[in-house]
Amino acid sequence: MDHLPPNHFLNLPRPDVFVPTLAGTPDTSTLAAHDFDVDTRTGFMPPEPPLTRLPSAWEPWEAALEDAIQSKLQLAERPDLSDEERAKSELWRDRVRELPILPIADLKSSEVRLRRAHHVLAWIMHFYVHTTPTSVHNIHIPPPITVPLLQVCAQLQLPPVLTYSDDVLYNWAFKTPPASNILFAPKQELHNLRCLTLFTGTRDEEEFYLSSARIELRGVEALSVMRAIMDEAFVGDAIAIRRITTYLRALADVIRDLRELLAGVRQGCDPQIFYDEIRPWFKGADSDTKGCKWIFDGIELDPTLEEPTELSGPSAGQSSLIHALDIFLGVDRYSHSHFPVGRSQNSSSSSASSSSSSLNDSSAPSAPSSTSSSSGSPSTMAFSSAPGPPPKVPFLTRMQSYMPRHHRAFLRHLQANPRPLRRLVEQSDDEALREAYDVAVTALKEFRDEHVRIVALYILIPSRKAAGVDEADSGPKGTGGTDAFQFVKGVRDQTAGALLSRRE
To answer: What is the pTM of this model?
Structure first.
């Protein structure tokens, strides 16, 4: 019988920050932590609260962000913006332009500090851009932000824009410390979280981010079930099949809980407040409907830096958890590769399709299928500058370039599983196994049903209300130029197409 080898990625423990390593225990933490950064207790969320402030050498950044938040800067596009608020925003932007260009050399040795630097600088940049008067069509990002942000992004292999990880994965703290760090149980802490950084300071914004954070923590159990199923798949005997059947039903239960947590956003975030006051802050250059360009001044000061080509902003499509579920269930080739929404690999931000970004404007999606992997890895695909007309990159594949690079590595490794679950189920004549598989896929489809409802409630209805009935035939754009509502419906329908019962 084949078993998972001891160095298989699902057998490698993350270093436990709360439990000291026992003397004589083999150190397997390097590969697990550095290659995948997936914790057994918190999944894709960090195992301890993210850093809340950089050391004093980078205090000017922290002070600028704190100043923006405490000053309660307002969106420039607000129709009721007062002259006093415009002047306050302009004074803050003046202070940002006068900041020193701080070196990042001493940040490079710490992934945690680099993440915090990306969080702070990207947040400052979004404050800067979205408080700039709407009459300005070329928005110049000043060198004190451009240079360190692009340098940090080069280290993290991330775009210089807010991402899901900035708003969700690395934007939380406990309201009250858990009773026991050693026995930390994510399910018990789902409602013991608060956000570190907010644009508006409202409960609506905080609940919007935390609804995703709760999904990430609840999804940790799904990762554990996936590991158990993979263990049994390597055995493959009759007992293993029965166990996999049971595990698939347990996985479906977890996914149903994720759906309930997603629906729970309604309890704390008002759709109209989200659409009018929160969502505009997320917009990247790719998401601008008025053709504004972001110009990164000072990029020539560091010859190693390149002009950014990915500036979409945060999206639920950047959640590695849902990508992992898609890959594991083998749904990705249905929910992803058959929906070729994207843009050319070397298209610049200035020529990208117009859209309006949101954390929930794209279905929590899947990883690239085998048919699309030849076009490049997710970590480099979106930044290609090869000559000639490159192929379109599917939207959901593009979103992987916005994920932490370790999580991209996890998804690639998961996709390389030599004994994929779907193939095992397809080749089996065990009806209970096939039924259990369809139960899990149905749960994922129902999760996306809920996502369709959320997009309709938070984006489609408010946008039509703002635009009038004349534009009812044209839905609002989502991240990367997609029609938000039609896109999530399409991915949902294609997920349903993965059901085995539909293909017989």
So the answer is: 0.82
